[in-house]
Amino acid sequence: MHQQQEDIVAGLDIGTTKIACIVGRRNEQGKIEILGMGKSRSDGVSRGVVSNIQKTVDSIKEAVREAENSAGVDIQTVNVGIAGQHIRSMHHRGMITRQSLEEEIRQQDIDALIDDMYKLVMPAGEEIIHVLPQEYIVDNEQGIKDPIGMSGVRLEANFHIISGQVTAARNINKCVHRANLEVTELILEPLASADAVLSAEEKEAGVVLVDIGGGTTDIAIFSENIIRHTAVIPFGGNVITEDIKMGCAILRDQAELLKTRFGSALAAENKENEVVCIPGLRGREPKEISVKNLAHIIQCRMEEILEHVHFEIKNSGLEKQLNAGGIVLTGGGAQLKHLRQLTEYITGLSTRIGYPNEHLAPSKVVDVTSPLYATGVGLVMRGFSHLDRSRPRVEKTNKVEVTTHSANRVGSWFTQVLDKASEFMKDDES
């Protein structure tokens, strides 16, 4: 069981509306097979940030318990997603000078350069979550994707650095620890979602991932297989629900149901005479709500969110490079009817809905291919790539040991010759 346990990865998506725990393993073909999934309502999170520790702990425990039962495994460690409007991204260039020209650039040199970036001085109360190398420069030679094996003294790199509030990350860690779990890695949610729904061709061509969650809308822009820009917009599906609740004067749960069942992002696509009847409160008359009016409310708010997205795309300076890949919408908000058409209309970029089945093997858990679980699936994938990164290193260090071992052998052979010679001389003297 222990061997099997090693290759099982769990992802924990702590969102504003739900907490989802997804457990997966890798099959023989290298595809990820989802073994089980658990979800619970998230009451202690607002806009992607933990606001009530105890409620969040209880929700995590419930989701993990459900996932353990459906997968039949015991979960001890999880990969956790982090989001929220406190997330900032910036660009930075780092450099190290290597001692030897003879030795080729190894993974250790790159690791040393990345570790250096984590030592950057950040504003008070912020810490670095991710350091993502974009391109390397070896002895002023630009645009190198992978410098391993090259010769050079001066190794530089341009980095995309993602930082967040220390307290937000601590609170997430605290919740996970109190739920008797260990955190393997803290991962930015749009990066995880991107792993789940984007293909390698899209990342190469230039694509914007827009993950519309309950509390936040996360954006990640890729071009030439490199992440170029990340942003978090503090609006999501919950604001739409609130608008419906206020506009139609109904309960929040009723507004949520209206949005998911009858909601549409384009008012023009709905008929005038379509009406939904909602039961009134204690003895009051039932309410009749026009589907077209509902769509008007949703459209206004959705346009605002997409305007923000469009602003971020322009702000990144990459708008011209995104014509081929366009926009990929994912997250719970992507399930809204006619959203694709509205996005195309506002941004002028071709749009598709991203389902997290790009790298998944068929599984018994059907729900998992919904855009709702893109982040959770991405966290599982990130967990496997983390395993892969940590394993080859062991092999490399073994190789190094072998070379030093052979050097020792040479040394020992030499000492043997000397010992023999000295013995011979002693015998001669005697």
Give a written overview of the molecule.
Helix content is 41%, strand content 28%. With 430 residues, it is an alpha+beta fold. Among the domains are: 88-165, Dna Ligase, domain 1 (2-Layer Sandwich), CATH 3.30.1490; 238-299, ATPase, nucleotide binding domain (Nucleotidyltransferase, domain 5, 2-Layer Sandwich). β2 and β3 (32-41) form a beta hairpin. α2 (53-71) packs across α4.
Summed up, what is this model?
By secondary structure, the chain is α+β, with helices and mostly antiparallel strands. 41% of the residues lie in helices and 28% in strands. Helix 2 crosses helix 4, helix 7 runs antiparallel to helix 9 and helix 9 crosses helix 10.
Number of helices: 11
Shape: globular
User: What kind of sheet is the major sheet?
Assistant: 5 strands, mixed
Rg from alpha-carbon coordinates: 27 Å
Mean pLDDT: 85
Tell me the structural class: alpha+beta
| Helix percentage range | 40-55%
Output the strand order for the largest sheet: 3-2-1-6-11
What's the order of the H and E elements?
Answer: HEEEEEHEEHEEEHEHHEEEHHEEHEHEH
| CATH topology tier name of the domain at 88-165 | Dna Ligase, domain 1
Termini distance? 66 Å
* Shape-level CATH architecture of the domain at 88-165: 2-Layer Sandwich
- Low-confidence runs of at least 5 consecutive residues: 1-5, 393-415
Number of strands: 18
Q: Quote the beta fraction.
A: 25-35%
| CATH secondary-structure class of the domain at 88-165 | Alpha Beta
